[in-house]
Amino acid sequence: MVQSRAKSVAAYLRELPAGRRAVVSAVRDAIRLALPRGYQEAMNWGMIAWQVPLSRYPETYNGEPLLFAALAAQKNNYALYLMCLYRNKKRETALRAAYKRIGRKPDMGKSCIRFRKFEDLPLPGIRKIIAGVPLKTFIADYEKARG
Fold first, then answer.
1. In this structure, what DSSP letter does residue 55 have?
2. Which of 72, 107, 135, 145 supports an S-S bond with 38, CB 3.0-4.6 Å?
């Protein structure tokens, strides 16, 4: 995985070639419009990250903010990480249905969605999933998974 050393989202976007910057910016804008209140945008793990601020939830397993979503331009594709998909069959099913509606197959892992072009993402479905996970729900899901 390619990781940026940029300290801010603006710096990260500036370091991308124009075409890749346009794709990342468009996906970022879509996420920001759907993002429930309380999440914090930052650069973390070398990617644009939307996370639970430590001031809101400091008791994480690694001392880092809980990652809700992240976006990165990789060497051969882009990666969108939606941690709210992990261990949530209902949200994963909704994402797969969104892909079906646009006639594409998802290239994804447990929480990672890989895509080569902006058109490869079912953004309306992704926005709906993101909007449906308020901060309190995400924290409750995390606590439930921790046991």
1. T
2. 135
Q: pLDDT tens for residues 37-66? A: 999 999 999 999 999 999 999 989 899 999
Asked if residue 71 belongs to a domain, the reply is yes
Domain with 131 in it: 9-146
Strand partners, 79: 72, 114
What CATH number should be reported for the domain holding residue 120? 3.90.1150.200
Q: Give the count of domains, the chain.
A: 1
In a domain, 142, yes or no: yes
**pLDDT tens by residue, 107-127:** 999 889 999 999 999 999 999
In a domain, residue 105? The reply is yes
